[in-house]
Design brief:
Chain lengths: 524, 554
């Protein structure tokens, strides 16, 4: 036995939607940082597919379940130890912070109390008010009547979701009273112990930061701007670093909010914050004092070894002592785009629309010298057969028609034949696109748009969700057909806009693209 | 043979984004392989589009490219880096398909890049179903009656044939996790699943074969070097009989219900196959065994590292990816040190003195509307593994590792199931079948009845019933469980893998009280070492599991 101080790092368990390989990355880097700093690093985890459970990753590996009892048993065995690190193992490890802390176990880094504070809506809102940091208006309710009252106060559309959920389960955007009532009745179990949160839905840019705090200072390695607007789960959004459309004022505010929040919450280590921007004003929508899905991506494109820096903060070394200037780390020159990857082909009965619930299983990164080029690569990497061939089939909800017009004009200008269903076709034709061909709906008999998809005519489907139940039933069938036929399907017009931007910048074959190593991109 | 000194720079292709069928196992295998190559002084060029991986760290490879995984982009990396060799078998099916494509397009020849390890010809023999079947017939290994179909017309012709061995299993060729496959019981189902499978197959090809419902499914992880030395790392047995994708099956290692004769028969066959294919590295052989005779069929061979090899590595402590990487650059099994023991060589077959259980983790908690049936098309996103001295306890540990809202076989919904629903849940595989089996025993069904519906081997069913019986013994022993009289009951419950919390719930105590009583009576876990050799040699492995046995090794 060595006389090194022992630290136990809790892993993240099985890979699931919302908790993927990124937490294994974080766990392994924490272990490496601990060993480098002269500590004995011990891992507890139960996932056989991971690097964290490889035989030579840690000084000792306990292949054990991650429950309070199983962890306490290992800790008994490892007495005396310095402490336990929970912030790199996703929600699995974070959930153990409170019971372990109650059992007298020292949690290194952000305490169980900091973690609770971020999850306790009331305490957290109070803190934000004290700090003068804005969040979308809203309240927690325990019955349908209160929900309606709150919604009337703040106005529709509202974002509704149960408190205390993992990865945005059962979250919905409701645009009127009927929808809200039906959500309260069918979608969730409401009780005084499990309140429902009703928030004003801000239709704006969603932005995400991961920061590292030593308890006093805060380092923001980078800001990531989501490509899809608020309402699409952050794990299912494409995101670009550095941000392409944020003003200096907005960025400064984010840095200020993050720094003051981290200090007020006594965060030591990593913290993820999600904002939605209305004009220049960022509103906080979620804070998690732990490592997040974006940590590996951000580490690689900024060159800041985030988990290592955070681990050193946890061990007591300040950011300044590590040579980092607090605040926003200088932005890198080469844009990087993260894009989600889905597994819909494997799962029948699952709708492939993007929404507040996460559905993707993985992600990829595209990096190049300009934003459109990085987008192009990201789309190739997540499976788009670029440059796309075939026709584009458009069928969008009435509310989206005005917005879709310039996009379709853009695709048509690139030479894509355009098909659209009834209302959408009429709208496009009347808006100066006479060449748009009308595709019959399924209910209108054959040949219809399903035949177009199955026959291989369609190379891309753009479909937004309709509030009309009958139209939506058909929408779901069309989307499913696209999944089965392997035709890309976009349900957010923001993704379509990004695709158009990539294609218009590089309409030909993509031959002009080069490759570079991670280090070379960092060198500029 | 010593390592090939002309190989100075090697390219490794990762498996890309995490999708169902290709999860973190290839980051694990790829990372281990990269380090093994660098240990031998070889410079590693790594390409993967997935930034959330360890393998794309600058600490793991010498040159890291996070670029799209397409032949065009990979060709650019090759043009730029001029590697001496490429190991195609580390990046799952994605890596293997890309390497094949690069070879077919002449990119590898143009830049003098050698394919290292298992040659492409061997990969083609294993992956092209017709060639594979032909080879199996040549070496006298049985394969199920099957048909390769590439057009809708051929599919229609086949469906009209009389005497087809119904039900039929449909597997699309060259897809991840058997994507788009299924079991067809009728002509209509065959047409539907078959044409969907062709659409999803990059070669527009499906294999349709006799469905071996009710046969045991067994896998062997085998390694071979260029010197024709072969060893088996371990074998694994699926709890779910044939018909469920192995990625969606509960798995136990080593196999528990095979007689020695059966074990040796399948082992011999696996080794014969890896030799006939000419694989240099790791390989996974899947076999079906008739529980009522010594008949068996070869189902499939994966001529590369796979999810199963990751599981076998962790189950035995034998670093398969590391050894495969060394074999790829010319080393022989008897020249590679087993890092885990530090004493033995890689040619020693691991021995296990414990039981390993794997349970898949499905996404049905997120996708409540999804079809929960598990078939030949994989649906799990991940998996957990647990080790213990008994099957019961390993199973209990694995269940609570899944984080699906239960710490034991007590399942919230189970008491609401009608008897008819239970029958259906036993016969149609879903993620809830294990809990349905437990509930069936709670309602007094016999082993034979449950076996008839589920085709689970009676050995597994007895074990599951043991756990259910312990539940009722605890309920009955509520009064005594924390007294001297109940010490043996408490100890037994712990040996069966019951968490304090569950014992507390079943006996109306608090978890704290159970824990305190347990500790005061010395019922605490000991930690055993995973040493690959069942303690035959001294070992320095730092890898442990708990059990409620006598002696600790930590």
């Amino acid at each position: 036995m060595s006389d090194k101080k022992k630290v136990i790092v809790l892993g993240s368990g099985p890979i699931r939607i919302g908790q993927g390989i990124e937490f294994d990355y974080c766990t392994v880097h924490c272990v490496w940082a601990l060993r480098e700093a002269g500590y004995e690093a011990i891992v507890q985890n139960n996932n056989p597919e991971t690097v964290s459970t490889d035989f030579d990753t840690s000084d000792r590996l306990y292949f054990e379940p991650l429950t309070t009892e199983d962890v306490l048993n290992v800790l008994d065995r490892e007495e005396p130890y310095h402490g336990v690190i929970v912030q790199f193992g996703g929600q699995t490890a974070i959930n153990l912070a409170r019971p372990l802390s109650d059992a007298g176990v020292p949690i290194l880094g952000s305490s169980a109390d900091s973690i609770d504070l971020a999850e306790d809506r009331e305490r957290f809102e109070k803190l934000l008010r004290e700090l003068g940091i804005p969040k979308p208006e809203g309240r927690a309710v325990t019955n349908a009547e209160d929900a309606v009252t709150v919604a009337r106060e703040i106005g529709f559309p509202c974002l509704v979701r149960p408190s205390y959920v993992l990865g945005g389960r059962a979250m919905e955007i409701v645009s009127g009273e009927d929808e809200l009532r039906s959500y309260m009745r069918y979608a969730v179990d409401v009780s005084p112990k499990a309140p429902i949160l009703v928030d004003r839905y801000i239709v704006g840019k969603e932005v995400e930061v991961d920061c590292i705090s030593d308890g006093v200072d805060c380092l923001l390695p980078g800001i990531m701007e989501h490509i899809e607007r608020a309402g699409v789960h952050s794990g299912d959004s494409m995101a670009v670093y550095p941000p392409q459309s944020l003003s200096k004022v907005t960025k400064d505010k984010m840095v200020d909010y993050a720094t003051r929040l981290a200090r007020a919450m006594n965060v030591v280590g990593l913290m993820n914050i999600q904002f939605v921007c209305e004009g220049d004003e960022p509103y906080i929508i979620e804070v998690n004092p732990r490592s997040s899905r974006t940590v590996p991506y951000l580490s690689k494109i900024t060159g800041v070894p985030m988990v290592k820096v955070a681990t050193r903060c946890i061990l007591g070394q300040s950011l300044k002592e590590q040579g980092y200037t607090p605040g926003l780390y200088p932005e890198q020159k080469n844009p990087a785009v993260k894009a989600p990857v889905f597994s819909f082909q494997k799962l029948s009965g699952v709708d492939n629309t993007l929404g507040p619930e996460m559905k993707s299983t993985g992600e990829i990164l595209g990096q190049d010298s300009t934003y459109p080029r990085a987008l192009y690569k990201a789309l190739v990497a997540c499976g788009f057969d670029m440059p796309l061939t075939g026709a584009i089939l458009v069928t969008v909800a009435d509310a989206d028609k005005a917005e879709v017009l310039p996009l379709i004009e853009g695709f048509a200008a690139l030479g894509f034949p355009i098909y659209a269903t009834g209302g959408t076709a009429v709208f496009l034709q009347q808006s100066g696109m006479p060449n748009v061909q009308t595709a019959r709906k399924i209910s209108e008999g054959s040949p219809n748009l399903l035949d177009l998809i199955h026959g291989g005519t369609v190379g891309l489907l753009i479909n937004t969700i309709s509030k009309d139940k009958k139209i939506e039933r058909e929408g779901a069938q069309i989307r499913r057909a696209s999944v089965e036929r392997g035709v890309p399907c976009l349900t957010s017009l923001d993704t379509a806009r990004a695709l158009l931007l990539a294609l218009s910048s590089h309409p030909s074959t993509g031959e002009g693209f080069g490759v570079r190593t991670v280090d070379e991109y960092l060198a500029g | 043979m010593p390592k090939d000194l002309t190989i100075k720079k090697v390219m490794v292709i990762g498996s890309g984004p995490i999708v169902i069928g290709q999860a973190a196992e290839f980051d694990y295998a790829g990372t281990q392989a990269c380090r093994a190559l660098r240990e031998e002084g070889v410079s590693v060029v790594l390409v993967n589009s997935n930034p959330a991986t360890i393998m794309t760290d600058v600490e793991v490879a010498d040159r890291v490219y996070i670029e799209p995984l397409t032949p065009a982009f990979l060709a650019k990396v090759i043009e730029r880096e001029r590697p001496d060799g490429l190991v195609p078998t580390l990046g799952g099916q994605t890596g293997l398909n890309l390497a094949t494509e690069l070879a077919n397009r002449g990119v590898l020849d143009d830049y003098n890049v050698r394919l290292l390890g298992t040659p492409l010809s061997a990969i083609a023999r294993a992956e092209d179903r017709e060639r594979f079947r032909k080879l199996m017939r040549e070496i006298g290994e049985p394969v199920p009656e099957s048909f390769i179909i590439e057009t809708d017309a051929a599919l229609r012709d086949l469906s009209r044939q009389s005497g087809l061995p119904w039900p039929l299993i449909v597997r699309p060729a060259y897809t991840l996790g058997g994507s788009g496959g299924g079991i067809a019981h009728t002509v209509n189902e065959l047409m539907e699943i078959g044409s969907r499978g062709m659409r999803l197959s990059p070669r527009h090809q499906v294999m349709i074969e006799r469905c071996l419902v009710g046969w045991k499914e067994v896998e062997y992880e085998v390694m071979r070097d260029a010197n024709d030395t072969c060893i088996t790392i371990c074998n694994m047995e699926n709890l779910d009989p044939m018909g469920v994708h192995t990625g969606d099956s509960m798995v136990v290692a080593p196999s528990q219900t095979l007689s020695d004769k059966e074990y040796q028969m399948l082992r011999t066959s696996s080794i014969k196959i890896i030799r006939a294919l000419g694989i240099e590295g790791g390989c996974n052989v899947q076999l079906a065994l008739d529980p009522h005779s010594f008949a068996y069929n070869i189902i499939e061979v994966n001529p590369r590292l796979s999810r199963s090899s990751a599981l076998a590595s962790k189950a035995t402590g034998y670093p398969i990816a590391r050894v495969a990487a060394k074999i790829a650059i010319g080393l022989h099994l008897d020249e590679i040190e087993n890092k885990v023991t530090g004493k033995t060589l890689a040619c020693f077959e691991p021995a296990l003195d414990y039981c390993v259980v794997k349970i898949p983790r499905w996404p049905f908690d997120k996708f409540v509307s999804a079809d929960r049936r598990i078939t030949t098309q994989m649906k799990a996103t991940g998996e957990v593994m647990a080790l213990d001295r008994s099957f019961e306890s390993a199973l209990m540990k694995a269940v609570r590792s899944c984080e699906i809202g239960t710490l034991s076989l007590l399942y919230k919904k189970a008491s609401l199931w009608s008897d008819m629903e239970i029958e259906r849940l036993l016969s149609v595989a879903t993620d809830e079948r294990l809990f349905a089996i437990a509930e069936a025993f709670r309602r007094g069904l016999m082993i034979e009845e449950v076996h008839q519906l589920s085709f689970f081997d009676p050995w597994f069913l007895v074990k599951i019933r043991n756990i259910v019986r312990m539940e009722s013994r605890l309920r009955e022993g509520a009064v005594i469980v924390l007294t001297d009289e109940g010490t043996e009951l408490l100890r037994e419950a712990k040996q069966f893998g019951f968490p304090d919390r569950v014992i507390a719930d079943l006996t109306g105590k608090t978890e704290m009280a159970v824990r305190a009583r347990r500790k005061s009576t010395g019922i605490v876990p000991v930690y055993k070492m995973v040493d690959t050799c069942a303690a035959e040699f001294e070992s320095h492995t730092p890898y442990f599991y708990s059990c409620y046995d006598a002696e600790t090794e930590a």
